[in-house]
Amino acid sequence: MIRETDFSRLAHTWEQLAEQMKAKGDTTTPVKLLQLADKTKRAELNIAFCGHFSAGKSTMINTLLGVNLLPSNPIPTSANVVKIRGGEKAARVYTMNSGVITFDPDTEMEKLKQFAVDGDTVESVEVSYPGTFLDDHSSLLDTPGIDSTDAAHKIATESALHLADVVIYMMDYNHVQAEENFNFTKTLKDRGKPVYLVVNMIDKHIDFELDFDSYKESVEDAFATWNIKPDGIFYTSLAEPDHPENQYEEFKNKLSELIRDREELVGHSVRSAAEHLIDEHVQVLKAASEGLRMEWESKMDSLETEGVDSRDAAAVRNALQQAEAEAAALASLPEEARKKMEKEMSVLLDNARLTYFSTNEAARSYLESRKPGFKLGFLFAGKKTEEERARRAEALLADLREKVAGNLDFHFKELMGKQPQEYHIRDEEYHASVHAMTVGITPEFLASHVKDGAQSQEYVLNYCNDIANGIKLEYRRAGLGFIDQVIARLQEQVKAQLEDQQARLAVLRELASVHEKLAELASGEQESREQLQTIMQKGEQVS
């Protein structure tokens, strides 16, 4: 059993929800929540009657009440919701512009009926009448008649339905399987409303065409096909109260039973209604931002890039990340290429062996000829000495040139020649300059590395290292020049590729920005939902 204080707390929670929604600029849903709060405070059970104009709703309600409060002619009586409750006699019309107008339900009902059909100025009509099966805390709602599928969806979101704890859906015997019946009842069941079906006017049934049990089975099967499980189905006839299949009394007893279970039904219903009003509020927020959403979606459709679905946020994000990574790799390619080429050249030069035993011997002999006091013979000694010095220098030069040609020059030119190919650069002039490149190993080169000092085996080895390093230094200088040429060409190539890539990046970034804005909208709507759900959960925890 739910205590009165629990209903009061829940009502306060609905008021908090309404304030939160107002702060978001929603002017419609808070009104419904405040209506729900008022109903919750009174723990009032509302049983809503819905159905077609011709289904006999008004007649059924009048019969159940035992007094003709509603017109029973086929004119649509419920352009507005008419609420009937127990209590002292009173009839009130809630108008949009004139406030509340009161009538005597015994003498002025015709006037009230005129207000009941005036949907332009009247918001709702409320009648209280003693002596019925209703009490101060229970009421019947006569809702607008349904005449189309669109109307069914409209009625399902009308203010009356969120106040309904139980829905009685009435159908004419001959129109049970109309599509709007299925649409409407499914909408109600999806909203968690208890729904009881009343198939009225069964006196139209002709038994010899189809036995009544088979007819009932066809009705149940039709709703089951739509995955609709009503809480009960009643078959009634008001024209023939003694009809053998008439379940009017069972139906009336069910209504009395629902009234007895009022507090439990209301407790469940108001919570469910609040949850659906939170959903409605989120839809209001979505509608408010629909213009922006459509603008961004239109922009999204106008931005196209090959291989990417512009409406797929994840695909756009992945494509942007990939394009940015590719652009970054392109931008760093020249520097990375330089490091790679210089490293390969260094490895080649470091591993190239230019001096062997024969080189050391030729160097020792050459250095000996460079010592002060070196002299050959007595006759024509000066000329012979110079000739010997020249011969020994040429011997060292020949040895070095042979080692350089076999161990360095060939491999160096092969390396320099293939480097542009790795970056898809074709330059015949470059290749010609690589193969035409020479490093001059001259007598002057040999002489420039001779140092003064006593000649020893260690000195000879150091001299050989010096001339080998000197030769490698010249190749390194030439190699750096070739690398500069390759890098210059590569930079031109990268610049052109980056320009193409930037165009794609600009589109992807703009697309990603649009998706972020759309995500922000959705995130804001979800955040609003979660804030409201948190308020609701806190309110329920104390109940």
Automatic annotation (TrEMBL):
Q: Where in the cell is it found?
A: Membrane
- What Pfam family is a match for this entry? Dynamin_N
Q: What is its main location?
A: membrane
What Gene3D superfamilies does the entry give?
A: P-loop containing nucleotide triphosphate hydrolases (3.40.50.300)
Question: Can you give the residue ranges of the Dynamin N-terminal domain?
Answer: 47-200
Keyword Membrane belongs to the record: yes
Q: Which UniProt keywords apply?
A: GTP-binding, Hydrolase, Membrane, Nucleotide-binding
> Does the keyword Hydrolase belong to this entry?
yes
**What SUPFAM superfamilies has UniProt attached to this entry?**
P-loop containing nucleoside triphosphate hydrolases
Q: Which PANTHER family match?
A: SARCALUMENIN, TRANSMEMBRANE GTPASE FZO1
What's this protein's name? Dynamin family protein
Q: Which organism is it from?
A: Brevibacillus choshinensis
